[in-house]
Amino acid sequence: MVNTPINHKTVFLFDNSSYFAINCGQTFEFDISSKSKTSNQTQNQNKISPLNKSLWTCTVEAAIEFARIVYDLFPENKLIRLMTTKHENTLNTWNESEQGLDTLMNLMGTVHPPFPSTHQISQSEELILCRALNASLNAIAQSTQMQQNLIKNKIPVRNRGRIIFFTSSNVRKFEPIQEFLAKAIEELNKIIDQAAKNDIAIQKIDKIELVIIDMVPIDQNLTLTKEKIIQNSPELRTHILSSKSGSNLSLKLIQLTQKFYDLAVTSVTNIPMKEELNANSSANYDVDILHHKSLHDQLKISGLLKNCLVSKDGVNTVCLKWSNPKTNITEFNLTTNSSRITPIDVNSRPSSCLTSFLLSGRCVVLEIPRATTSTRISSHVLCTHGNEIFIHSLNYSLKSVFDDRPSIDSDTENLKYYRTNEFIDFMKSNTLPKILNDKAPSKAQKISEKFEKITQNWPIKYTEKIITNLQPLRPFLLRCMSEEAFTDAQYNECIKSLEFLQNAESKSEPISASHLISPVEDLSIYKKKDLFKIIWTELEAFLSPYQDFSDKHKFFYNHIKTIKLNQAKSESTFGRNLDPRKMSRQTDKIQLMNLIPREVLEFENEKLSKRKAFSKDISSADINLYEFWSRTLVDKNKCKPDFYGRLMYPNQTAPLYSNLKMDENSSSKNSAVKMEI
Predict the structure, then answer these.
(1) Which residue, 168, 207, 333, 646, is the most exposed by fewest CB within 10 angstroms?
(2) Of the segments 136-140, 443-447, 476-480, which one has the largest average pLDDT value?
(3) 262-310 pLDDT per residue, tens
(4) Strands 674-675 and 654-655: what pairing?
(5) Number of other CB atoms surrounding residue 268 within 10 Å
(6) How far lies 616's CA from each of 227, 342, 612, in Å?
(7) What percent of the chain has pLDDT over 90?
(8) What are the residues whose beta carbons fall under 8 Å from the beta carbon of 467, sequence distance 6 or more?
(9) Which helix H or strand E contains 3, and what residues bound it?
């Protein structure tokens, strides 16, 4: 779901009640004297008395100035609609044809200003205000062209907007207005869900920011000293602030543009300018400009922003010094950011001169004041593109941008270490196409994922990896990086590259200097086997992001992985055969066999074999040592002949010494000894 920026839609609601017909309390001088007339008497005759403005005039001028800043900085997708409490509908729509400063000024010229009256606001006028608030909500609910395009592409949109209401607490109570809007939003969303759910021209209101500006004449005190924020409902948030009329209101609206559109103020100081009445003399002037606040990010990173900040009329301003070096705009370093600009006081003579100077095709370099740094640092540049004035943030450092930049061609000694040609081929084979179909988001995501994979392992220098410095592997690496599908010739070329490595490893051929793209002194420190082990490991890591490109990429990846596994198995087997402990035992055994007689060795070997068989039987049987020993004794006794009496008298008592004849007189009558078995 796409969150529509809350500053995408702005509705100005003007209170047209009789209260706004009163005098704002500030006078304005209009000097129409001609420069050619030097007589004081003539000048006094041409002067007119100071003019007074009503609250209504101050409100309209401040809103038009707000719109001028928005349209200058954001020509698209920042839309404004006008509404008064005397009208039941807005004066314009969200169409681009009904936007623009001239259109808004002409529309406000058709609105009758309020008439002074002493009576209080009646109930009918309160009803008119409710209708105007409903019309403002309907305007926010209507979809703009940008929102309709997103909905047509089946992208959900969160509909958000802002209502700026110029009124006064002297004639209006703000609590009922907030309660009415909260209920009206809820009711309007229910109606849209029931009746216009599938209509792309109207959308539910997800969030509205109501900004109530409480205006008072200059000679009265403010009702609020700080902004008051109230969360009325999940869809409505109210900001209440108080401001004096006249020039104070314009300043308040400029502060609101900074807050609502993420803007910042930069003051171009020490602009040399000739005097209007005396062309032979010159003076330095300052011009304040508005632009996006991201242009000050470089100052924040370098820690110089706090030293450049000053407060002008309660607005934080970054002061940068005018500099006009004799250089071309193409000689600047790459910029990190850019934004359109607009002067705050667009009608002043310094602003007009600066604008004319830039529109003539020249540029202005802005420097950080010398009091802040000990060196000359050029941080920004002002120039025009297509008759629009932009400010660019330079990628500056403690070194000036006007110093000679290092050329890569001048350092031919180190240039040979960089993979310049490979990088050029990589860029040519991965040029991003312009996507103009409905599947653009998914296709763009696939391209982004592909670049993220293939740039994870891309050495800049030949010497960063061993494989990038091997001349025989160069065709293989280039084909795998640039081709998603191999031809037969390219496939055979890659096979030959891998065969070179396998043959060199099997024949134990060392890597000579002729095989290297860039000479490396410490390549000889690797052992013969260790070198190829590192090469296969680097190839596996290199091919890992490319294995999903095609079946042949997968084949090469699996082939290299198999070689690595075979290497690991052979190393483990070789390691077991060359165990130093076993080798020492075998050596000791050989030495003993040469010293001990043969008969003793045979006897010892027989005992050792029986001991091994005994331990093998215990480990294989799932019994304890006592049970195993008992079974062994029983099995051993079975090998001897059984007792004769047990065989003759099974399950009975066997008589002992039955064959002996004893004297009948000593008859103990069967006095033979019996033993139970």
Answers:
(1) 646
(2) 136-140
(3) 999 999 988 887 766 555 556 788 899 999 999 988 888 777 888 888 8
(4) antiparallel
(5) 24
(6) 89, 93, 6
(7) 23
(8) 473, 477, 535, 538, 539, 542
(9) strand 2-3
Helix, coil or strand: residue 577:
helix
Smallest Cα–Cα separation from 324: which of 288, 359, 367? 367
Q: How far is CA 370 from CA 69, 130, 373, in A?
A: 31, 57, 5
Instruction: Pick the closest to residue 357 from 294, 274, 254, 280 (CA basis).
Output: 274
202 φ/ψ angles, rounded to the nearest 5 degrees: -140, 140
Other C-beta atoms lying within 10 Å of the C-beta of residue 412:
8
C-alpha 179 chain-centroid distance: 39
* Helical segments of 74-173, H only: 101-109, 123-141, 145-152
- The residue type found at 58 is C
Can you give the C-alpha Rg of the chain in angstroms?
47
What string of DSSP letters covers 45-75? HH--PPEEEEHHHHHHHHHHHHHHHHHHH-S
646's tokens = 């047990």
- Structure-block tokens of residue 407: 């050329």
Q: Which residues of 656-669 are buried (b: 16+ CB within 10 A; e: fewer)?
A: eeeeeeeeeeeeee
Please name the residues in contact with 79: beta carbons below 8 A apart, sequence gap of 6 or more: 8, 9, 10, 94, 99, 144
Nearest Cα to 252, choosing from 212, 282, 289, 287? 212
User: Pseudo-torsion of CA 32, 36, 41, 43, nearest 10°?
Assistant: 10
Q: What is the pLDDT of residues 373-397, one digit of tens each?
A: 567 778 888 988 888 999 998 877 5
Q: What is the CB neighbour count within 10 angstroms for residue 186?
A: 14
Residues 204 and 191: their CA atoms lie apart, in Å, by 9
The DSSP call for residue 461 is: B
